[in-house]
Structures are given as C-alpha cells and as structure tokens.
Amino acid sequence: MRWRPRSSFLIGLVLLAAVALVGVAYVGQHRDARSLEALSADSSLWHVAGIERELLRFTRAVTRAMAESLHDTPNPALADVPFRFEILWSRVLTTTTGPIGARVKLADSDGVVPRLMRLLEAHEARVMAFDPADHDGNEAMLAAFAEVERGVTELAALADRVEQDWTRGIHDAMLGSAEMIKGAGVLALLLSLLIGVTLHRQARLDAARLREIRAQAERAEAASLTRERFLTMVSHELRTPMNGVLGMIALLQASRLEQNQAFYARHAWRSGHIMLSVIEALLDMSDIRDGRLTLKRAEFALADLARAVETRLEPLGEPGAARICVDVPGDPAARFTGDVARIGQLTAQMVFHVIDTLGAQRCCCRFGLHQGTLEIVIRLSERERLRWPLETILDPASPGARSVASDASGPAVARALIASMGGTAAIAHPGEGTAELRIGLPSAAPVAGAAAPDGARRAEPETMGRAPGLPLGLPAASLRAAALRAEPDAMAGPRA
Amino acid sequence: MSQLRGGPMPDTVRRRLLSCLAVVALIAAPRTAAAADPVLLTVVDTATGTRVELTRARMDALAQHVIATTTDFTEGTAEFRGPLATDILAAAGAGGAREVKLVAANDYSVTVPADDFRAYGVVMATEMNGKRLSLRDRGPVWVMYPLDDFPELRRPHYIDRLIWQLVRVEAR
Predict the structure, then answer these.
(1) Is the CB of B55 inside 8 Å of chain A's CB atoms?
(2) Residue of B nearest to A50 (CA)
(3) pLDDT at position A487 over 60
(4) How many inter-chain contacts (A to B, CB under 8 Å) are there?
C-alpha cells in the first residue's frame, strides 16, 4: 500500500522548515548586527588619528612660539606649548591603556606609539620649561617628533586599511545575509503556496468523504426502513396462516387422539404459540422503534393480571418440563392502573425466556403492590443449573449476553415496555440457589398522550417479602437506554 | 648677564627691567591664587547668557559620588569620583536644561540630553582610583556613565559621551 502523507504532517514539516529558515536568517542578521556594532565601537583609528592631530598641534605650537620669540612682543604661544604637550600626552596614554591600547598595539607592529611615549618622556623637561630662544635644541626636538609623526601617519593609514577590510567583510556578510533572507522569503512563499494547495486538496477530499458518509447513512436508513416495513408486513402475513394452523391444531386436539398423537399435537400447539409470540415481538419492536406504541390506561385487579399471564404462558408451557406458578400472595383484589395486557405480555415474555432460554426448572411469578408501585417478582431456583446467568436478561453487556439474552426478541421487547412505562428492573439473589428478576412499575406511569384520570383508585400498599433497603432496579433512564440499545440487535438480521 | 653682574646699569635697561618686574608681580599674584584653586569648569546657560566658573574647591564642595566601571580607555575596573552632572548644572543655575553641549580642552564637543544625567546618575569625575585627574590623565574633569550597570550604555553613541578633559558646559 502506497504511503500518502497526511496534510497535518505536511503542514508540520513546512512550518518546521519555515521556522528553521527564519532561525538561520535571524542568526545571520544578529551576527551582522553584532559585527556592525563592534565596528562602530572600535575607535582605534579615531584614536590614532587623534595622536596625529595632537602631534601636529604640538609641533605647530612649538614652531609658533619659536617664531613669536623673534619679535619684541609678549609671546602668547608660549603657554600653548606645554598645554598641547599635555593634550598629546593624554592621547598617547589613551592608546596605550585598556582595550583600545590593546587593539592599537595589535596594529602597531613597528612600535610607533611606545616610541612616541618615550619621546614625550625624553622631552618633558624641555617642554615644561620651554625656551623659545633655544633654537638648536627645539629644532632637534621637532626633528625627532617629525620622524615619529611619519610613523603615526603610517599607523593611521594601516588602521584605516584594517578598518576598511573589516568593513568590507561585514558588508559582504550582510549582503550574504540579505540574500539568505530573500531566499528564505521566497521559500516561505513557496511553502505557503504548498500549504494552501494541500489544505485545499484536503478540504475537497473531506467534503467528498462527508458526502459519501451521508449517502451511506441515507442508504442505510432507507434499507433499515425497507427491512422494517418488510418485517412488519411479513409478521402480519404470518399471523393469519399461523392462526389458521393453531385453529386446526386446536380442533385436532379436541378430537380423539392416540397418546403419542396428542403429544405431537401439544408440541405443535406450543410451537405455534411461540412463533406467534415472536411475531408479536417483531411487530411490537417495530412499533417501539417507530414511536407508534401506545399504552392503555385502565384500572385492574392483580388477580386479572395473574390470569392474563397464566393465559399467555399456558400454551407455551412444555408438558412435564418446568414448573411455573403465578401467584398474588397479597390481596388479589388490589387494583392498579396501567395497561394490563402489556404488563401481562412483558411478564410472560420474561418468564418464558427464563424457562425456555435460560433453562430454569422452577419459576414462580408473584405480583404485589408496594407504595403504589406494582412489583413483579420472577423467582427461580437452582440458578446454578441455568445455561446462562439471569443477569443476561437485563444487561446486554454481561458475559454471554451478546449471543443469547440481548439478542432474544422477548426480553428486548419486555425491557422496552418497562422503560416505556417508566419502570425499573433488577436482579437479586435473596437466598442460596435462588435468583429474582424484580420489576417495578409505577402507577402513575406516563402514558402516551393521556393524563391520569381524576379520582383513580390507588391500591393499598402491600409487601411481597422484598428485602428492606434492596434497590428495586435500574433507574428508568438507564433501563430505557439499555432497551433502546437492545432494539437494533433484536431486530437485526444475521450480521454480514 | 655680564652687564647685570658688572658696572652700573643703563637707565633704559633699569626702567625696562623694573616695568617687567612690575608686570610679573601683577600677573603672578592672581596666578598663584588661581594655581591654588583653579577653575575646572565653565558652565554657560545659553538661554540667559549666565556664565559660572566652577573652581576645584567649589566642585569638591558638592556631594561626591563614585562610579566603578570598566571602560575601553582604562585598565580593569576603575573608580571615578566626582559630583553628579545634575548637581553641577544646579550649582550653575541651569538645572532645567534639556540638553547640554560638552566641550573638551582640545575643542572636541558632544551634545547630550540632560535626561541622561538624571537617568544614569552621570558623574563629572575629578578623581580616578583615588588620584586627582590631571590634563595628562584626561582630566581635570571626565564625564563618566555607569557603563557596567546599564548594558545599553555600551553602544557607540553613549561611549562618545564619555568626554574627557572637559572644560566647558553649555546648557540649553
């Protein structure tokens, strides 16, 4: 597979390159600025030129004083000689001390400055007691200074050349830096264009991908809708012949049959009813998904509910197999408001699943009222002999649930109905070997589009031996979420 | 010389000699006083035309401050001692100057904003390392900034303001 760099990687690479270029340019610029600053700070040439200037001033002062002495007038230039000597001395001193002295010394290979200093020291006494009339002595002194003056001039010229070379070097370096910065700018422009093109291309790819995802989602939605409609239609179409089959089986059972024939008829009767309940679950799940499920609201006695469950379970029971009991241990006449058919349906679906799928041998279903809540307890014994844990009936994420319980249509519809009624469900283990599925349904459960009728009779609180403080089950919201998660699984066909 | 040491001196020569002695006496008296307390600095307020001559004694009477710093013109760290430039201006009645022109003995000059003096505590040093600055040692007054305390003072245009052999200050 050909590796294609991601746009973020490209952008990062480009930015890194741009930063590197800017860094190089900055370092070059900084170096040039430092060199320029050093050049500006280096006043060696200026100081050597200062010596030359002050030397000239001194010799002129001497010459002028000597010339003035020839006239019979006061000699104002006389005092200027030692003054200029002192100024010259200070200038020479400056070029022999400190960093300036060190730099001048590097350029002064002929030792002009030390020679000048020695000359100053040698003539100090003469200058301090300057006698303009001592022409021979003064001329000799001027000659000595004139000789050094040539050396100073050469030193100044040398310092000038050194400074010019340095300046030229800095100039060349600055030109190089400018070229580098220009190159960096062009490169940055190219990189920016590359980033722009890459981003544009990436945006087009993203847009195409988004369109594809939307199209896929729409196709999936359409396919799902088609499947739902097909399932609904098939379910309806199946019910009619199935009722015919069951009717015929009922007639067959009513006829005189041999024992084994009656056994076969009984199994056919049970299987037909199981198929009917599956078809019913498919239709209900379809209604729930489409939001078409409606719950009736009517008052009923717990005994009515127990009978409804018995009626539903009666054809599903396997002869000679599990023992099922449906009981109202409290007041059977106690009344509750709700959809008795749906409550009976969800209870029967749970019980049937516990027996048929999980493999419980004994199962007892009890109804009671507790503080206005209808409590349905489905208790089974010998739970260690179950094929799968009871928890799988509620928790699609529990071990083994994905393949068994959560995919079963009955519990999925039951969970959805419990959630629709605002109820809760939980698993408890009250004793050794026993397990309970506890379902709690509120009397004032929200009913689609209907308010609780005024004056509705409230049932008296009853207990069903519930352990004090034991939570009844999951919150309605979480149960609802669990039920909704289970729906697609229940409705989905074999996964591709 | 032989005439002096030998016979009587002619009248013309005696008169000339006496007049010379009188001139020397007249010049020597104030010069002796001046040598004792020479004028180091002349401060001129160009706005008012006021001219104040600050002698060594007068400068020494001002509060003395020390700047210890390295320079390109001295070996190692040197201690420069003298009055603050702001005190000099104030003593000359030019404390409100915005800028000053500093003139050296060799006619070198540089113009400095007076804010420099306040911002950096610039000293007009008359001593370096405990020794009075002579003309030969780049004195008697050397304008000194605390170079080591402020990195920006190492820039060339600040170095140019370290004027030595200062003789005249023109306040504007």
Answers:
(1) no
(2) B106
(3) no
(4) 44
Q: What is the 3-state secondary structure (H, E, C) of chain B?
A: CHHHHCCCCCHHHHHHHHHHHHHHHHHHHHHHHHHHCCEEEEEEECCCCEEEEEEHHHHHHCCEEEEEEECCCCCCEEEEEEEEHHHHHHHCCCCCCCEEEEEECCCCEEEEEHHHHHHHCCEEECEECCEECCCCCCCCCEEECCCCCCHHHHCHHHHCCCCCCEEEEEEC
Straight-line distance from the first to the last Cα atom of chain B, in angstroms, rounded to the nearest whole number = 56
Interface of A with B (CB under 8 A): 37, 40-41, 43, 54, 57, 83, 86-87, 89-90, 93-94, 97-100
Does the CB of B80 have a partner CB in chain A at under 8 Å?
Answer: no
Q: Which residue has the higher pLDDT, A79 or A484?
A: A79
Task: Mention every residue, 6+ apart, whose C-beta is less than 8 A from residue B45.
Answer: B51, B92, B93, B94, B97, B171
Helix A80-94, helix A98-107: angle, nearest 10: 80
Give A-chain residues touching B106 at CB under 8 angstroms.
54, 57, 87
Distance, in Å, from the CA atom of A81 to the CA atom of B20, rounded to the nearest integer, reads 22
CA nearest B71 in A: which residue?
A98
Q: How many CB atoms lie within 10 A of CB B58?
A: 18
| Strands in A357-491 per DSSP E | 362-370, 373-380, 424-428, 435-442
Query: What's the CA gap between A90 and A58, in Å, rounded?
Result: 13
pTM, entire model: 0.49
Q: Does B23 touch chain A (CB under 8 A)?
A: no
pLDDT at A396: 64
Q: What is the distance between the alpha carbons of residues B55 and B75, in angstroms, rounded to a whole number?
A: 29
Are B73 and A86 a contacting pair at CB < 8 A?
A: no
Nearest-by-Cβ selection for B74 from A40, A86, A98: A98
Confidence check: pLDDT of A483 > 50: no
Instruction: Show Cβ contacts of residue A259 under 8 Å, excluding neighbours closer than 6 positions.
Output: none
CA distance A394 to A406: 8
Q: Do B156 and A40 touch (CB under 8 A)?
A: yes
